[in-house]
Amino acid sequence: MIKEEAQQRKTFSGLLRVLDQRFEEVAIVAGFLFFTILITLQVINRYVLTFADIANINVWSEELARYVFIWVSYIGAALVIKKRANINVDAVTRILPVSFSKVLNLVSSLLTFVLFYILIKGGIATITMQVTNHQVTPAMGIPMYIPYLAVPLGISLMFFRTLQNIIADIKEMSFQSIVLGIAITIILFLPILLVDNINATLLLFAYFILLIIMGVPIAFSLGIATLVTTINSQAIPLDYFSQAAFNGIDSFPIMAIPFFVAAGVIMGSGGLLRRLLNLGNELVGFFPGGLALVTVITCMFFAAISGSGPATVAAVGTMMIPEMKRQGYSVAFSAAIVAAAGSIGVIIPPSNPFVIYGVVGQESVGKLFIAGIIPGVLIGIILMILAYSTSKKNGWKGNKDRIDIIAVLRAAWDAKLALVVPVIILGGIYGGYMTPTEAAAISVTYGLIIGLFVYRDLKFKDMYNCLVESGSTTAVIIILMAMATIFGRFITIERVAETVAAFVLGISTNKVIVLLLINIFLLFVGMVMEALAAIIILTPILLPMVSQLGVDPIQFGVIMVVNLAIGFITPPVGVNLFVASGISKVRIEEITRPAIPLILGMIFILLLVTYIPEISLWLPSLMR
């Protein structure tokens, strides 16, 4: 009997251990596959099975997919916390003593607990109200509290993972450090508790900037800064936080982001990328600096699949940096050209930043996609010119004597399944057959089918890992958007956009000067803040101002994304530099030196895009 009880306890503890290690991952993979298949079936039903509607799928599929997506996002956020993979600005904290950095981590966690408490409390209140009023969803007619449970339950899981991290950190901290962390947390709340009616705008941005400097994840910095300001000003009810945490991401267009992320990860893991590299090599490999040119060309090809700068650098750099090193190229230059070319991933469509800008600015994602094509190609050309001149100067020759048209055609045929992806995405969107979200879902389905069953170089374990990576990457972005919805509410109430516009236009009303000031500002922002976070925070502030000057919102979206793409390769927060540094094992400072001419070339294209609107607006004008 005692043996059986011991065995049961052992089995139970083993189950808990597996749940602790794998719960979020399994939920993400299951959810991802579910809403990918659902949206794919929605498209198939519309055009292939028009004679037999699959259980009236077009009526309820979009709603169900959105709700599953919200659940997956909050569960994915818990995995991000568990892995400590949140987006934060560590330019200050990484130069601090390790012991004090741990104190700030404790402060960050304690502040986040307060935010979590408000979200859970508000979520329970919202659900109670929905149960009392018997609210149901519009399409499926299921109780509304079922999708809304994602907020309190998901935040509770995030609370639990944060608590685990705190316990692990405290074990490595001295008693004095723990007390210091608690004391700093209390001190941060004292001003709003002791002084009534502090200027709300000043308080909001002061706390936000302070939290960013302290290394608090950007998403939680937005939420905590707004919470602190709300406690002091009582401008919005606290229950609004949980409602915004749901409504801020309950959007079908936003679902394009996880699909594009997944498509890039899946296709970068399989044989599609190798075939694109081979095609690029056949096209330009015979020039001086052939491999550098191949890198740029391949990044442009892959940009039309992934929608992500760091993903492009990781996929292409893993193959090209070691090969360039083997053929005598400077390792620092190899890393720099991959990092710079990878930034094209957010300009040539599809592009996650364009999706975010379109949602936040309420502009057409399809028009933004097509507006990015010419600027993206121009950046690719300028990078190739600079890579060519640098290679010629250093004697880095091509890996073949001349172009072989037959070999090019053979490589193009071999890469045909990869080249079809942009046609599916862009053709589906601009042909009016699919929304950007549907086209993105189809690209994921296509990538899985090709990798698993055609090339067979993607195993089911690889698929699992790809979807986990996609889910956690997406969760960071989506939680950021949820918190930015709350932050944006305060910006609207306090008329921050109008205040900023009045200040800037007070300096000058000349469009040329104002756009130059905005470019300088955005280049600086790109140096210290992740691109998606910057778009979410700054679009509601800057877009109304430039609209007053007659700047087309689509053109401004391109200006903003190109600016922040340059931020991918500018320290201290140049994420492409970090990815390239990790692959090449070369310090950031060494990569930055050969990257400077590439950055200047990209700024030249930025100025062209800023002052020649036709570069970004000509293709969208053909859609009218």
TrEMBL record:
Key words of the record: Cell inner membrane, Cell membrane, Membrane, Transmembrane, Transmembrane helix, Transport
Record-annotated TRAP C4-dicarboxylate transport system permease DctM subunit domain positions: 205-615
Annotated InterPro entries: DctM, DctQ, TRAP_DctM
Keyword Transport: yes
Membrane topology, as annotated: Multi-pass membrane protein
GO CC terms of this entry: plasma membrane
Domain of life of the native organism: Bacteria
Protein name in the entry: Sialic acid TRAP transporter permease protein SiaT
Protein location: Cell inner membrane
Transmembrane segments: 26-44, 64-82, 103-125, 145-163, 175-194, 206-231, 252-273, 293-316, 328-348, 368-390, 411-433, 439-455, 467-488, 500-524, 531-551, 557-583, 595-619
Residue ranges occupied by any Tripartite ATP-independent periplasmic transporters DctQ component domain in the UniProt entry: 36-171
GO terms, molecular function: transmembrane transporter activity
